[in-house]
Design goal:
The complex is a heterodimer of chains A (539) and B (328). Chain A is α/β, with parallel strands linked by helices. Chain A has 20 helices and 22 strands. In chain A, helix 10 packs across helix 20 (526-534), helix 16 (409-423) crosses helix 17 (440-453) and helix 19 (497-503) crosses helix 20 (526-534). The longest helix of chain A is centred in the middle third of the chain and has 16 residues, at 215-230. Chain B is mainly α and 328 residues long. Chain B has one domain (50-286). Chain B is 74% helix and 0% strand. Chain B has 14 helices and no strands. The longest helix of chain B is centred in the middle third of the chain and has 28 residues, at 102-129. Chain B is globular and about 60 Å long. The chains are: A alpha/beta (539), B mainly alpha (328). At the A-B interface, helix 4 and helix 8 of A face helix 1, helix 9 and helix 10 of B.
Chain lengths: 539, 328
């Protein structure tokens, strides 16, 4: 196997001819490819200088990536580093703003996932893409249903054929007639994998396929992946579990801030983490204030909810407590639980020494000291886009601004004006300016402002700097530190670990819904947080 | 390599019941309606319904069943087609004013079907490609199609050829029953085509369908075209029964077609429906009129009872669906 980096631009004539032959070859079966020894180590899929933005957010920026046949290539990086976006672009779900995609050395442009599938690309997406109200068999065979009389789909043969496919992959225990909605999340993920594999792709993308799987199931998947590799399939794989990457990957590419920052055959975990977090020098973080000795503002004991498994902590006024870890390890559910927006099944929450039951957001807003949640998804969870800046700012404190159910305009104007000044929200006419017309940074400030205006003493800030420009980020950092200095308790999560490292006096790292580590001291480092999040304490 | 988490296959009958619970519930409701009808009929008249009664009921139910078939397909895509009433009115108006003999009858039958499909095409383009809300689009086109019906036939009147009545209704003998089976046949073919799969996948989850290479916009467009087509068929059946044209003939079917679909166990969230349920729904809605009549209920209250029945059926459907799927 050639170790030299493959550059298809300089491929010899005969090599090119062979690749072209591979493109038009009707037989895309991996076994057939494996038969030709020379096709190993040729590039299966390549991305050249890909750019992709979603609104103001640059998801992928000048990314280059290449994966070869007969190898497993791992893509690693923090959440939001651009791995999933790159995969979506390479498998035809998203279109790049600029840059080229090469499949088997030839430039390709997919108008949709179907074209990519026809080119031999199979994908297991991070989000489940099963049809919930269709049976397992229908889902598995949606593109290649068994045909019977008159070319019609034979619904009788569906379960039989589905059972055959499942048996091929050792999943006899799953009933092909069951509805996808009735399967466990892990089983749904297995079906998702089998569906992609039974289309016999020779380029396979697996975007975090193991997140929902148990250890046995991960072993099952990896033995399949190794078989495919031995048969010449080009596999691209993402995971947040380093152990898995070490086990299965031939190559590792690290992504950070939408671009590739390093590719190597082997990589040490610490090295990878350093590449993943990087050093962003242009940002200056304000120093968090010292935490005064006092009674905790919020005490959480053995909190259990869907996705949260027994989390306990205390937070005092003036403290900025980071909740770190990789996304999807319970941070979001923890924040939502404390705000009453996620069902809690056990444990206790004490606000200023008093036990509170928070079953809905209204309870949280009222619970003595006031708990406010600023979510990351401005559009769907926070702001009312078609409404004015004023309406958005005063929404959460309307009872305080109203008398006999009528809003007191003067009081509202005063309150809104104060928030706009404090946060330097750029709005000339707050009663008329619609939030939808504002920039992302300004929108985020409106959302934060709404909750500051309620005078809540406990602020839950969930990834509030996501998709916000650098200048506004700076303002938000300053604001967070000011709020803490004013005696508010701030619970803070950010997908940019660097922010947590600098702004928080203390960081709890969650892993699989539990506190995996607690980091304190003046110089909590970003790579410490990531390392604590990746390492399985039980290992 | 097999995973050792052991679960035995559930019996096929239980799967069938669990996954089709709402359709089966519609069948049960139909059986109850038939029993109620027979009992009340016997009580008031002293004998059981004869062939004439049976024929009348089937004739009355047929247009609703046809328009319901199209409505079912649209509901599968999470949509709603209010314009079917307008399409039916146009079909009746065209039939009453343009059909004179066998030749023009056949010609205009074909034209009416094309007009219906085209009306559905307009809806489909606006919903699937212009991404407008189905309820808004079809509410607007309902008014437009009603207007067109009035242009075609300004006043009730005209003449429907006897041939059409003979073919589509068969007075005196319940031959028209075969049309109900034709509807079920069309459905089962539809369900076994790639288009049917695409429409169901779209209704299940548009993002997932796209990721599986299904052209969601095309599937949605096709659903509205089929709805328009079957509404036109329903219009021809109405024309055949009334033998004269009324440009407002389709109006009552706007809401009853939707009622039939949901009485038949479809969900408004898309991806689950069966024409058998809709046909049952259409029959129940037809029978209930006779049931209320023989139960001496004032006709003025009829709509109220229909509404009650619909809510009860939908509630029951949710309940039965939950029970069937959790008791495994």
């Amino acid at each position: 196997m050639s170790e030299a980096p493959v550059d298809s631009r300089t491929g010899s004539g005969s090599e090119r001819a062979r690749r072209e032959a591979a493109v038009v070859s009707p037989e895309r079966h991996p076994v057939a490819l494996g038969g030709q020894g020379s096709s190993r180590s040729s590039v299966g899929v390549e991305a050249r200088d890909i750019h992709k933005s979603y609104g103001p957010v640059r998801a992928v920026e000048a990314a280059n990536f290449a994966a070869r046949f007969g190898e497993v290539h791992a893509l690693v990086g923090e959440n939001g580093a651009g791995k999933s976006t790159l995969i979506k672009i390479l498998c035809g779900v998203a279109r790049p703003d600029s840059g080229a995609i090469l499949v088997r050395g030839q430039e390709a442009s997919f108008s949709g996932p179907l074209q990519a599938q026809r080119a031999g690309i199979g994908t297991v997406f991070q989000e489940l893409t099963l049809m919930r109200w269709m049976s397992v068999a229908e889902n598995l065979l949606i593109n290649v249903p068994p045909r019977g009389f008159g070319g019609l789909i034979s619904r009788r043969k569906l379960p039989e054929l589905g059972a055959e496919v499942l048996a091929q992959y050792g999943l006899e225990r799953i009933d092909p007639r069951a509805l996808a909605a009735d399967l466990s999340v892990a089983d749904q993920q297995l079906i998702e994998i089998v569906r992609a594999l039974q289309r016999r792709p020779d380029i396979l993308f697996l975007d975090e396929p193991t997140a929902a799987l148990s250890e046995t199931e991960v072993d099952w998947l990896f033995s399949l992946v190794r078989d495919l590799r031995d048969n010449g399939v080009c596999t691209v794989f993402t995971s947040h579990r380093w152990r898995e990457i070490e086990t299965v990957a031939d190559w590792i590419t690290v992504f950070r801030n939408g671009r590739d920052v390093g590719t190597a055959r082997t990589m040490d975990e610490d090295e990878a983490i350093q590449l993943m977090t990087g050093r962003t020098l242009e940002r200056i973080f304000p120093k968090p204030p010292a935490v005064p000795e006092s009674q905790p503002a919020l005490r959480v004991k053995d909190l259990v909810a869907d996705g949260v498994r027994s989390v306990s902590f205390e937070i005092r006024p003036g403290e900025i407590l980071g909740i770190g870890g990789l996304a999807g390890h319970g941070q979001r559910q923890l924040f939502l639980s404390l705000f009453g927006a996620h069902k809690v099944s056990g444990g206790t929450i004490e606000v200023q020494g008093r036990r509170k039951r928070i079953r809905k957001p209204l309870d949280a807003i009222r619970s003595g000291m006031g708990i406010a949640l600023v979510p990351e998804d401005r559009k769907s969870e926070g702001l009312f886009m078609p409404m004015s800046v004023r309406d958005n700012l005063s929404l959460a404190q309307l009872p305080a601004l109203s008398r006999f159910g009528l809003i007191r305009w003067g009081k509202e104007r005063a309150s809104v004006g104060k928030v706009i000044r404090t946060l330097a929200i750029r709005s000339a006419a707050p009663t008329r300016d619609r939030v939808s017309a504002m920039s992302g940074g300004n929108q985020q400030k409106v959302l934060i402002g709404r909750w500051l205006a309620t005078d809540a003493q406990i602020l839950l800030l969930y990834d509030v700097t996501r998709g916000v420009d650098v200048a506004t980020k700076q303002e938000i950092y300053q604001l967070i530190v000011e709020q803490a200095a004013a005696g508010k308790a701030v619970l803070f999560f950010s997908s940019e670990t660097e922010e947590m490292a600098h702004l928080c006096q203390r960081v709890l790292v969650l892993r699989e819904g539990r506190v995996n580590a607690e980091l304190t001291g003046d110089d909590v480092q970003a790579d410490q947080i990531v390392a604590a999040a990746m390492k399985d304490r039980s290992q | 390599m097999s995973l050792t988490r052991q679960t035995a296959w559930r019996a096929p009958s239980r799967h069938f019941v669990a996954q089709n619970s709402t359709t089966l519930l519609a069948l049960v409701i139909l059986v109850f309606s038939v029993v109620a009808y027979l009992v009340l009929y016997y009580q008031s008249l002293g004998h059981f319904p004869d062939q004439y009664d049976l024929t009348t009921i089937i004739d009355t139910a047929l247009p609703l069943a046809w328009v319901g078939l199209g409505q079912t397909i649209v509901v599968v895509t999470r949509g709603l087609d209010l314009s079917v009433g307008g399409v039916m009115s146009v079909a009746v108006a065209l039939a009453a004013s343009r059909m004179h003999d066998v030749g023009t009858m056949i010609l205009w039958c074909v034209i009416v079907l094309l007009v219906g499909a085209f009306a559905g095409f307009v809806n489909g383009v606006l919903v699937a490609y212009a991404k407008l809300a189905p309820i808004l689009v079809t509410l607007a086109t309902l008014s437009i199609f009603e207007g067109i019906a009035l242009v075609v036939l300004p006043q009730p009147g005209g003449q429907i050829p006897v041939g059409l009545t003979n073919v589509l209704t068969n007075p005196g003998h319940p031959y028209a029953l075969i049309y109900l089976f034709l509807i079920l046949g069309i459905w089962s073919v539809f369900r076994r085509t790639s288009l049917g799969t695409a429409i169901f996948a779209t209704g299940n989850d548009e993002t997932a369908a796209t990721a599986n290479g299904i052209n969601v916009a095309r599937a949605t467009l096709a659903a509205y075209v089929l709805s328009g087509l079957f509404a036109a068929v329903a219009g021809l059946f109405v024309a055949a029964q009334t033998t004269a044209g009324d440009p407002g003939a389709g109006n009552p079917f706007v809401l009853t077609s939707i009622a039939a679909v949901f009485l038949g166990g479809a969900t408004i969230f898309g991806g689950r429906a069966h024409a058998l349920g809709t046909v049952c729904g259409a029959l129940v809605l037809t029978l209930i009129v006779s049931v209320l009549f023989y139960a001496n209920v004032n006709q003025l209250y009829q709509a109220m009872y229909e509404g009650l029945l619909l809510i009860l059926a939908v509630l029951l459907g949710i309940l039965v669906g939950k029970l069937a799927r959790t008791s495994r």
